[in-house]
Design brief:
heterodimer; A: alpha+beta; Beta-Lactamase; Immunoglobulin-like; five-stranded antiparallel β-sheet; B: alpha+beta; 39 helices; AP complex subunit beta (chain B); AP_complex_bsu_1_2_4 (chain B); membrane (chain B); Clathrin/coatomer_adapt-like_N (chain B)
Chain lengths: 433, 892
């Protein structure tokens, strides 16, 4: 009997939102910390999980939820910054929460230690890690999860890696803990008061063999960096606000104001945060793609010809920069030669991938790549076709048409410096050849 | 500096000295090394005494390290931890809230009874601490304590304190209290610790908007698990409130909100509102797909369940489920499943293009699944079957990949079964690939086609002999069975092939050890030798329609899974089994995964498994030695039903002829259903209906025609709140299933229910929830179908004269048969309350009432100068216009 069979019998109705244990492993599989909550989990579980992760590193086959062979337990894993986060649970519980929590854990650690070299920092300062975990999750339930608040509870180490001092002198807790603006630090003071807003949009599209869009959508994010003193209230107005579909907002945004008046009113947290996320240009209101494509692909015996022409379109006269195209070539390709009207083409015969580096696209006209594939079997027709993924950036342009109309401050009396930017990048911009 | 390298034995002594040092920095560093060593698995328990000495330190960091050490070792050696109790108690009284909380948390994580007893006093104090940080920590300790000693928690009334804390001002304290109560309730299902009363609901929903994202999940999940709305209104209010959280950044919040809304929608009677709520779910659910791949998989597994439950929700968004080439394979598989749940006549061309694209990919499982999905489209959607078959044939003709061809042939067999005699023109193209088939299932499928269409395939006997008979003994079981059946069918179609069937029967009965094959051979043999016509009748009976379950998860499991959305169960698609003390047998809840379930389920059609008729109902004439045959049949049936091998679809021919087995027809109703107007068309289901009277009772006559490919296994029939307070007596259109092509005529008698009353207009909105989703339409109610028939004339008179409202009038063209008009109105139960004949003017006043609506109806028919007029006056007023319109129809 698989260990999980009895699990399903044992846990009956309802569920417990509980994580049994969290392990953090280094990329090499050493256990950095092992934090049990409800029930101790043997380290062998983490080792089992690591083994599976390692075995499937290349294949992309490993599901995010694994069931253990040794005992009735599920293992969630998440890998980032050369760290492996593992959550173990034996009880029925919200799977999405567990997965999301691991992501959040990484986020908090990045905020606390700084993203660079996180793996190494976490290792050398594992005592902090324990303290963070203590605040973050108690008894298996997520508790104080706001990065700002954790930083206030535990002074992060200085750049030298040594603690700047301990919190022991405090007899009172930071007031934010009980404040209704729990995301904002209590006392913030800046000489220059600044706020920066970035609209970043990722264009995703799949083009068919005829160059026509099959499906496309835009993932948008409004990022904010706030360096404002006191407790400011910001009011943000957009042009074209209707393009935003399915908006999700940071808890600091007054939701009903947004729903009823379509403006964003918020008291920002200090520092960087994601103000809003949205989708745009989905089925109901498709946006013309910023790059048009014209693929062609013909087989003949033992070889194939391919051609890909791309051109910048609908970018509001902004230049398309840093454009390159990655090809995933048929697995039976032997040799590929190609020439381009602009840029260079390279082929990696081991990985069967190729890259066409174009650079900045001309404002007018198209750039074309033509090439020839020779297959390993000189007599066979090949069924597989190449797939091209186009990466690009269009600075100062939001493809959905979203614009910021105004950004105003109320509350404190100082003058606020405002910075606003837009950026469109190619996400999964895929062409089936 | 690394703390992980202290594994050498000699260093323990060094560490002990370090901890004993007077320098705080040295102490801390040594302590960190101790923890490091502990993590690395070294036994440092011998340092306990030295560590305990330092417990009184005022340095918080050092204190935390010491507590960490204690927690770790108290698990393996709890009695050692008891030594530290005094320090714990002292710290739990510290002025620093962080220290108080730390001490309490640490004590609670040492799970021994002695500690629990010591804890009571500080726990009481901390639960009522002025600092919420301490409170929220203390709250969680209650659950831990309950685990160790439930009686103690009861005695000390900690649970009452938790209930009080639900109205605490700090959201974290509230959510932790909810979490703790939920936790204890779950672990002890026999208790009634956590009951969501209206009061508690109020507190929870107040905390919902203030809580952190994780707290929101806790509250939402608790609501989904334990809250039952007391009234539709309550459900509406809460659903509105929860729907705000659908736009949260955290996808787990979105899913938990969805779960609560779906649950609440079952309690809401206003169908318009339900519809509106469901529409709100669409976009947030789609946005779950933008999360990172790990979460995307979990989200997709959940979407799969939601789509099965509410297909209409995401059908317009099908393109978001199209696979990207670099999606992980497990994501692709999930997406494909969902695409197949959403496919319909409109989007099928788009879907087929995608599937064709997927068939050229590299991963074998995914490609096979894509090919089989094309066949599934054909089976699901009669309108698109031609297109799907073309696509399959195109794949067979052009694909260089062997398994694509084999998979295509396997699904084409199913298509043939679904649409007999429709696509046989492609058979020639299939046979051109006959030599490439090496998988048993593909071979068996090909053989089945050969037998089934033997009369139309030239030289079917030769093909069977050449390609399949040679290695009969080495063939897998399913191929052998297929050959046996096909040879008999071929013989019946081509009598000249007798030597072939004889040789096959000989091998099957004499040279085989397989009892299934041998018995089948004997049956055929005997059948052929006794009566060839009967053999033909049995083998060529129409096969039961191939059922195309759109549902991968059985209905009952699905219903149980919905409350578990977002949880582990929803990811593995299993219901956590009930450990309830009732001692129920474990449910069979595992779901075939990875492959479309229909492939397995169609093989044993419902009519066989569910209603196996007694032997007497066999529909062929029993002859001399049929007794034996019948026994054989029964035996064979049970034998084939048990394991339901993938090939038994082919074996069906053998059995179907012997089975009667359509569900009993409902009683005949004396009503002309053919005249009903069509009211709705939804996914191939056609609904006709109107209100009328049956036996003088308001009745909704309904014809439910299933033109879809899915058998209807359940329905729920409801009226929205309406102007007439009508409520259907029964919500069931049974008996089920209503097979594809069948129709069901029912007369649903209606009751009056005051809670259903809401003045909306003459239409009653009707909703039928069935396997294919919610079918909604409006039916015109008839006032004349609500009237009374036993009114006393003397009581009616004053009532009639009390109606003073303005009226609705219409003139009647042909006034010659005025008396007949009076007759007609009277036939609806109206009593004559007044009649006046004067100066060539005749006026008749008729009266009726509808007690449930407190409605009084007065109709006055006036004849003057050969001009007739009909006047309606009603109380309440809004009925007058409707009544008049209805009268217009009967007075012509």
């Amino acid at each position: 009997m698989h260990p999980l069979d009895s699990w399903h019998k044992e846990y009956s109705y309802g569920f417990r939102e509980m994580i049994d244990s969290i392990f953090i492993l280094s990329g090499q599989g050493d256990i950095i910390i092992d934090r049990p909550f409800a029930q101790t989990s043997p380290r062998s579980l983490a080792e089992e999980c690591y083994k599976l992760i390692k075995e499937n590193k290349e294949s992309n086959l490993l599901k995010p939820v694994l069931s253990s062979e040794q005992e009735p337990a599920y293992m969630f894993h998440y890998e980032k910054h050369n760290l492996i986060y593992i959550a173990i649970t034996r009880t029925e519980g919200p799977a999405l929460l567990f997965s999301k929590f691991l992501e959040h854990l990484d986020l908090v650690l990045c905020d606390f230690f700084g993203e660079e070299g996180l793996g190494e920092k976490v290792r050398s300062q594992f005592v902090y890690l324990y303290m963070i975990m203590d605040e973050l999750i108690d008894g298996g339930f997520p508790n104080i999860t706001e990065p700002n608040m954790i930083k206030e509870l535990l002074n992060p180490p200085g750049p030298s890696g040594h603690s700047a001092g301990t919190v022991i002198s405090k007899t009172e807790l930071p007031p934010t803990l009980t404040s209704s603006l729990y995301w904002r630090k209590g006392t913030v003071l800046y000489v220059n008061n600044e706020i920066f807003i970035d609209i970043n949009e990722t264009m995703n599209a799949i083009f068919g063999r005829d160059g026509v869009i099959i499906t496309s959508f835009i993932n948008g994010e409004v990022l904010c960096c706030s360096k404002l003193s006191g407790v400011p209230t910001i009011l943000l107005n957009y042009d074209n606000v209707m393009v935003m579909e399915d908006v999700s907002v940071h808890p600091c945004v007054k939701y009903l104001e947004w729903v009823n008046k379509k403006h964003v009113m918020f008291v920002p947290p200090d520092g960087n945060f994601t103000l809003m996320k949205y989708r745009a240009g989905t089925a109901s209101a498709a946006v013309p793609p910023p790059i048009s494509v014209r693929p062609s692909f013909t087989f003949s015996k033992g070889s194939a010809r391919f051609e890909l022409a791309i051109a910048a379109r609908n970018t509001g006269s902004k230049a398309v920069e840093q454009c390159f195209i990655d090809f995933s070539m048929p697995s039976t390709s032997r040799q590929i030669n190609a020439t381009a009207t602009q840029g260079a083409f390279t082929y990696d015969s081991n990985k069967k991938t190729a890259r066409w580096t174009v650079g900045t696209l001309p404002m007018q006209g198209e750039v074309v790549l033509t090439g020839n594939i020779d297959f390993e079997d000189r007599d066979a027709y090949c069924e597989e076709r190449p797939i091209a993924t186009i990466s690009f950036r269009v600075p100062m342009y939001a493809v959905s048409g979203l614009k910021i109309r105004s950004l105003t401050l109320s509350g404190p009396t100082y003058k606020m410096f405002k910075g606003m930017r837009c950026l469109t990048i190619g996400g999964n911009y895929e062409v089936r050849m | 500096m690394s703390y992980f390298n202290t594994t050498k034995k000699g260093e323990i002594q060094e560490l002990r000295e370090g901890i004993g040092s007077t320098n705080l920095r040295t102490k801390k560093d040594s302590m960190k090394r101790v923890i490091g060593a502990m993590m690395a698995g070294t036994d440092v328990s011998s340092l306990l005494a030295s560590v305990l000495v330092n417990m009184q330190t005022t340095d918080l960091e050092l204190k935390k390290l010491i507590y960490l050490y204690l927690v770790n070792y108290s698990k393996s050696e709890p009695e050692l931890a008891v030594h530290a109790v005094n320090s714990f108690l002292k710290d739990a009284n510290d002025t620093n809230p962080l220290v108080r909380a730390l001490a309490l948390r640490t004590m609670a994580s040492i799970r021994i009874e002695q500690i629990a007893e010591y804890m009571c006093e500080p726990l009481h104090r901390c639960l009522n601490d002025k600092d919420p940080y301490v409170q929220k920590t203390a709250v969680l300790c209650v659950a831990k304590m309950y685990d160790i000693n439930p009686q103690l928690v009861e005695d000390e009334k900690f649970l009452d304190t938790l209930h009080t804390l639900l109205s605490n001002g700090n959201p974290l304290v509230v959510t932790n209290s909810v979490a703790t109560l939920a936790e204890i309730q779950t672990a002890h299902p026999e208790t009634t610790i956590f009951q969501i009363t209206p009061d508690i609901l109020q507190k929870m929903s107040a905390a919902l908007s203030q809580a952190s994202e994780w707290g929101q999940i806790t509250i939402l999940d608790a609501l989904a698990a334990w809250y039952t709305p007391q009234s539709p209104k309550e459900a509406e209010t809460l659903a509105e409130r929860v729907s705000i959280h659908l736009s949260h950044n955290n996808s787990s919040v979105v899913l938990s909100s969805t779960k609560v809304i779906i649950k609440l929608s079952e309690y809401i009677t206003d169908l318009n509102l339900v519809d509106k709520l469901m529409k709100k779910l669409t976009q947030p659910l789609v946005s779950l797909l933008s999360s990172f791949p790990e979460m995307r998989y979990i989200a997709l597994r959940n979407l799969n369940l939601i789509v099965q439950r509410l297909p209409s929700l995401l059908v317009s968004e099908i393109s978001v489920f199209f696979c990207k080439y670099n999606d992980p394979i497990y994501v692709k598989m999930e997406k494909l499943e969902i695409i197949m749940l959403l496919v319909n006549e409109q989007n099928v061309p788009q879907v087929l293009n995608e599937l064709k694209e997927y068939a050229t990919e590299v991963d074998i499982d995914f490609v096979r699944k894509a090919v089989s999905a094309i066949g599934r489209c054909a089976i699901l959607l009669p309108g698109a079957a031609g297109l799907c078959v073309d696509t399959l044939v195109h794949l067979i003709e052009t694909s260089q990949v062997n398994f694509v061809i084999q998979e295509a042939i396997i699904v084409i067999k199913d298509v043939f079964r679904r649409y007999p005699n429709k696509y046989e023109s492609i058979i020639g193209k299939l046979f051109s690939k006959i030599e490439e088939l090496d998988e048993p299932e593909a071979r068996a499928s090909m053989i089945w086609i050969l037998g089934e269409y033997a009369d139309r395939i030239e030289g079917a006997d030769n093909i069977l002999e050449t390609y399949f008979l040679e290695n009969f003994a080495d063939e897998p079981h399913i191929v052998q069975m297929a050959i046996l059946t096909a040879s008999v069918k071929i013989f019946l179609a081509i009598p000249s092939s007798q030597p072939l069937v004889q040789s096959v029967l000989k091998i099957a009965t004499k040279k085989t050890d397989n009892p299934d094959l041998r018995d089948r051979g004997f049956i055929y043999w005997r059948l052929l030798s006794v009566n060839k016509d009967m053999a033909k009748a049995i083998l060529n009976t129409p096969k039961p329609p191939i059922s195309t379950h759109k549902d991968l998860v059985p209905k009952d499991v699905l219903a149980e899974l919905i409350p578990y959305l977002g949880t582990l169960s929803s990811v593995v698609h299993k219901v956590p089994d009930s450990a309830a003390p009732t001692g129920q047998a474990p449910k069979q809840t595992s779901i075939p995964s990875g492959d479309f379930a229909f492939q397995q389920e169609e093989l044993v059609p419902a009519s066989q498994t569910q209603s196996y008729p007694p032997p007497t109902s066999h529909n062929f004439d029993a002859q001399a030695n049929d007794e034996e045959l019948i026994d054989f049949g029964a035996f064979g049936l049970s034998a084939y039903n048990t394991p339901a091998p993938a090939s038994s679809g082919i074996d069906l021919d053998f059995l179907t002829g012997m089975m009667g087995g359509t569900p009993a027809a409902p009683p005949k109703i004396d009503y002309n259903f053919d005249a009903l107007p069509q009211l709705a068309l939804h996914e191939g289901v056609c609904v006709f209906g109107q209100f009328g009277q049956l036996n003088r009772k308001t009745t909704f006559f309904l014809r439910f025609k299933n033109n879809s490919a899915t058998p209807i296994t359940r329905t729920d029939f409801r009226f929205n709140t309406n102007s007439f307070a009508l409520k259907p007596q029964s919500a069931d259109l049974g008996p089920f299933p209503i097979q594809p092509g069948q129709q069901r005529d029912v007369a649903i008698s209606c009751d009056f229910d005051q809670s259903q009353l809401k003045v909306t207009g003459p239409d009653v909105q009707v909703g039928i929830q069935c396997d294919l989703g919610m079918i909604m339409f409006a039916a015109r109610a008839k006032i004349l179908s609500l009237t009374q028939y036993n009114l006393a004339a003397d009581q009616s008179k004053p009532k009639a004269s009390s109606v003073k409202n303005r009226n609705a009038t219409h003139s009647i063209q042909n006034a010659s048969n005025f008396n007949e008009f009076v007759q007609r109105v009277s036939s609806y139960g109206f009593v004559e309350t007044n009649r006046m004949v004067k100066d060539g003017l005749t006026a008749v006043q008729l009266f009726n009432e509808i007690p449930a609506l407190n409605a009084l109806l007065v109709v006055e028919l006036i004849l003057k100068d050969n001009q007739a007029q009909c006047v309606s006056r009603t109380e309440p007023e809004y009925l007058a216009q409707m009544l008049n319109e209805e009268l217009t129809h009967i007075l012509v």
